[in-house]
Amino acid sequence: MKSKILFISLAVVLALSVSVGLIGCTPTPTGAPDYIEILAVRSLDGPLLVFEQTAMGPIYKLWNHVVNNVSGGIYVPEFAKKIPVRITVKNDNSDLATMKSLLQTNLATGKYKFAIGPDCTPFLEAAGPICSQYGVVLVGAEGGATAVAQEMDKYPYMFSNLAFSDWYQVPELCKLMDAWSAAETVDGEVDVYVMYLNDQFGFEYRNTFAAWADNYTTIDIIKEVSMTPFTEEVAAQVNEATTMGADVVCIFAYPPTPMAVVGYAWATSQNFKGVVTGPAACYEGFYDVNATPNPGFGDVALGVSGFGAWNEYSTTGLRTFTENFVDYHGRALLDWWGGAQYYTGLQMLEKAIAAATTYDALAVRGVMASQKLDTILGETYYTTYDGTWPIGSSGGLLAIAAHAGEVGQWQEVTAANDWEPDGNLVGARLKPYGIAGNATEWAIFEVISLDHPTSDWIYPKQNWDGTPYS
Fold this sequence. Notes:
This protein is α/β, with parallel strands linked by helices.
């Protein structure tokens, strides 16, 4: 009986704490502010700098440009005028404790109603509770929410925009591998060697993959190997994968580890039927040999798969977004995993501010939690982990229905002499936007997941030298 009373008491306390979190926001201002102030605590140096350079960094800079220089600000109904955005970026030096301290210190000033998420899984999951404590709308960026997704009812101001392990990338990957097994004529199984990052991101993907693969008799995980964060020492693992006869190598790790795996396997002519990366293959720079400061793999990348996924052929809205991005940043910085979803999260914030009756975080959060809005992904909204919409007093995950895809693969497109003068590929689609000069060939990170494919998958992939796998 005591345990039941204690359980009920804890439930009441939790409910009250959520209510207080929703009510205890910045009060409605009496005059129009000069700027819509947005805080971003990001890694401007250290190993996580790569995400600021290639993932959310380019996206929020483009959005800031479009909002301020193209649109003239965000229309705020309460003041009947457009107000420009000002994004203040604080450097956490790729350190979790520093990120948490900077976020708390700056939000405690009451200056900010809105924040852009930090740049990896453990950082995002730490930021969600802090932003909800201060009643500040968090636009999630890089980082999955696997661990926190089922607890987001506690964090009403947290909005996670990225696709992640069980939302819904790994389930779609397993469907693909099940389809790939048709090519395994000996035992009918895809033998998978898994390398995973020794931190929260890696644990989440390893655990989710193991759980979902267990549903298929066609997927056999032959070994799981823990990798030091950001390591490029991968020779032992690649050699072992070859010795064990792996069909597919999965690298659930941050850059530069996946690139090191591909580079070493290529240099030593160790070919696999499939290679699947975490954040790595999803970047245009993974393929583009002219990317700076690190050139991509060019044709060596063909057939390599990775999480994502969207491209300029997914929807007309995403084609327009790609063109705008390339015009502002160039093509080499495109991120075919999170780029569209990060921008969508910022659009959701922008449109919620414009739709809210009052200019405060509670009202804006209410619009984001309860309305379906139009973004570059089309109709967009947030759900709870079990798919419930509207989310009520819970935090939200970008609805799976709004995702453009979950897994991509580098595939070659037709040579430039097959482009028509108007930029169309003969009998097919538009030329990839912004490719360098008169390039004789190019590749696209095609969506191959079975939900919203832009192309059929290729398995086995070709050898690193371009010859058919044998």
